[in-house]
Amino acid sequence: MFRTRRSGRTGAVTTPGKPAGSAARRPLLFVGAVAVLGFLGVFFAWPVLAILHRGLRPETALVLVDHGTWRIVAFTLGQAAASTALALAAGMPLAYLLARVRIPGKVLLRAVITVPFVLPTLVVGMAFRALLGTAEPSVSAIVLANAFFNVAVVARTVGGLWAQLDRRAEDAARSLGAGPLRTFGTVTLPALRPALWSATAVVFLFCSTSFGVVLVLGAGRYRTLETEIYLRTVRMLDLSGAAALSLLQLAAVLAALAVAALARRRRESAGGVRAAERPARNPRGAEWLVVAAGGAVLAALLVPIGALLVRSVSSRSGWSLAGYRALSGTGDGALGVSGWQAALNSLRTATDATWMALSLGVLACLVLISLRKRWTAELMDTALMLPLGVSAVTVGFGYLITLQLLPGDLRTSPLLVPFAQALVVTPLVVRTVLPVLRSVDERLREAAATLGAGPWRVRREVDLPLAGRAICTAAGFGFVVALGEFGATGFLARPEAPTLPVAISELISRPGELNTQMAYASCALLMLVTAGAVLVIESLRTDSVGEF
Amino acid sequence: MRAFEVDDVAVPGVRQRDEGLRLENVTVRYGSTTALSGIDLSAPGGEVLAVLGPSGGGKSTLLRTVAGLEGASRGAVRFGGEDLSGVPVHRRGFGMVFQDGQLFGHRDVAGNVEFGLRMRSVGRRERSREVARLLELVGLAGYQRRRVSELSGGQAQRVALARALAARPRLLLLDEPLSGLDRMLRERLAVDLAELLADSATTAVVVTHDLDEAFTLADRVAVLSEGRVLQEERPRRLWTRPADEEVAGFLGCTTFLRGRIEDGVASCPLGSVPCPGEHAGEVLLGLRATGVRAHRSGTERHPGRRGEVVRRLHRHDHVRLTVAVPELAGAELLEAVVADTDVPDPGEDVALALDPAGVALLGR
């Protein structure tokens, strides 16, 4: 008779649930997670908590009922909301240009859009000061500068998803009788919503914690939480007040990060929209209006950059290269080292920060994609993003308290500044590399495993090569961001070894035509290096999966 | 019939080397859903086992469990007698060919094929010799430096096969290896693959929903549905003697009629078919469309049961009819085929006769 044979025999071993490989995989995963979280713990959580601990006293609560505090909170959120709205409005036409229009030299376009985002905040502030021709505080200048800074985030995040949308859904809507506007409103915009949310959350986060821009353009009259924390910590030594404000800011940042995480999840679940054909084509009819708007935004982005360059070669008496010549000196008694020495310091610390952030960020990504439980991964992801939102000043000051407790004299080590910069750069690395790794088909890794590759060998043979470009991009961006980092660096850099941004802030805080000219020349120098790096990165990359 | 089972009784010490793959009471659960329950299967050394079944029936899970990509919540997977539950994927020495190839896009053809050899630290010169041999074996000699994105679907699948074979796997696992390809190519590659597996005496498990693929490749076929093995048999016998209506249905039987076997002949209201060697008794006949031949009425030569043509369907190599036979309890509408030269119109009367080639005996 027929049978389902060999029944009745019971299997000897019971291993509930997990693949056989996981037992061997967990220790490695554990080591990786400990390394990442350990670094975050020692160089981020501990300093921040130490500051909070030192600052939090019973009377700290008084700061929260102070009228002035809430005025600062209101101003912080208000200017961030206005800047975000402006960045969204300006970024959308650019996203459209990037995603849907066939233009020659897209690399250049992408680079021009991206440069403002990686410009040092101090440089952006100085560019707008040069544009306005005055050092008077101005709210509209703050909003414009913040928007200028973040247009790239909107254009790249939204444009990235837009380029992947299947154009045939829009064609279907058109064939069903919807006009172009109706199609955009009912088909395209809903599909872009995850990217829009993600971009909004991130831009809002950046704008509400923006430091250099507000410091330069607010000139003490307009203060945000971030600058207020700086002023209270550095100028007034009011740690208690600074701690209370830091907590407030942390709460706001967590809320923004939560929104961003939710949006990311939805964006990943919208992963099935990848189009087979390239959706870029020549614009038609009313689409030219959008293209024109994009062109206008592009021109507007170039104006502050141009203003800065012009200002750097001007003096009261006409064109002059005095600022650049002054780089070989120490300014009008402003600096302890020459301008070129500061530039060299910048390059050195940024290089150290980049390799640190790259090691940490890539390791973190590998751990994140190995985590099976969705919420553990989400939690760790968010933890990695936190340094973006916590005041760099808080971190910097925290270092001074905690690091003396560590063995080895880290406080005077030349690695101290790179550590702090690495913290700021790591989230960028994660956001650039992680989406690429997440998009790798799991079966590709399984194929490698069946061919005899162990868990870390799979990472090395499959994940790293596939994420190679993204890692290069992250390295490039990380480098330029570290180059311009000012919040923590301004606090930690020793007077005898300032970076270029620190030197700039010193120069503008002192009177004298030469100091001002030297500051503008330094800004121009930083900008040229940044722009060059971005151009190189853009010409190297072909994909647009990363979020920045 | 019991005599058939002698070879299934393991003789200690004799077949140890050729024991091959053995699944014992394997159960796989995802949370509260059970993907596989109590699977007992084996693929003796050198044999090809095909696992056939509808999609979502647990076929891929079965393969992934054998590979070590999923863990069994109960039961054991053994190879050559060794329990594999503690052995991770990369140490099992099993090759796997995925449905859509899953070639490494960042490596060229040679880079893909030699991957497993590199994992085993095989030297460069030997690697390139092996790659050349395998590419020749799968009919892609000289393709070493091609980018995988330039390959057609069939070529990609051949490279995937070469890549899996290069590591000289103890067991080859094939997950719907040909189902992404068009029909002509699929048929040709199935024949190639069958020859290749037979020549190299590779022990293999192939999962498929395609009957032709399973019957072309396999020494034994197991039918898997809703996480259970419904039947495991040699292909020919599975085709003619399915265990029950579900298996028979999956193998193309559309009509079931009660009948009796006497003196090596099975009879039912539509006629009789020879079945030498079958012992007498009740039997259920499973009829495929090809098991019922229709002939235009009026011809005296066909005195059998009659029916009325309800629908007519032209297939690429025959014409299929739906015929109403009101007096046939449980089979009032049945499918039949008719020769291309003599096609009746709907409404016309036809005579029906059984064709032994399309009739299966159930529960034997």
Automatic annotation (TrEMBL), chain A:
Keyword terms of this UniProt record: Cell inner membrane, Cell membrane, Membrane, Transmembrane, Transmembrane helix, Transport
GO cellular component, one term: plasma membrane
Location relative to the cell: Cell inner membrane; Cell membrane
Residue ranges of the TM segments: 28-52, 72-99, 111-132, 138-158, 195-219, 239-263, 288-310, 353-371, 383-403, 415-437, 466-484, 518-537
Main localization of the protein described in the UniProt heading: membrane
Family matches, as Pfam families: BPD_transp_1 (PF00528)
Region Disordered, annotated ranges: 1-21
Recorded topology in the membrane: Multi-pass membrane protein
Stretches assigned to the ABC transmembrane type-1 domain: 73-258, 343-537
InterPro entries with a match to the protein in the record: MetI-like, MetI-like_sf
GO annotation, biological process: transmembrane transport
Similarity annotation: Belongs to the binding-protein-dependent transport system permease family.
Protein's UniProt name: Thiamine transport system permease protein
Lineage of producing organism: Bacteria, Bacillati, Actinomycetota, Actinomycetes, Actinopolysporales
TrEMBL record, chain B:
Listed SMART domains: AAA
Enzyme Commission no: 7.6.2.9
Protein name per its UniProtKB record: ABC-type quaternary amine transporter
UniProt keyword list: ATP-binding, Nucleotide-binding, Transport
InterPro entries: AAA+_ATPase (IPR003593), ABC_SmlMolc_Importer (IPR050093), ABC_transporter-like_ATP-bd (IPR003439), ABC_transporter-like_CS (IPR017871), Mo/tungstate-bd_C_term_dom (IPR008995), P-loop_NTPase (IPR027417)
Domain spans labelled ABC transporter: 21-251
GO molecular function terms listed in the Swiss-Prot or TrEMBL record: ABC-type quaternary ammonium compound transporting activity; ATP binding; ATP hydrolysis activity
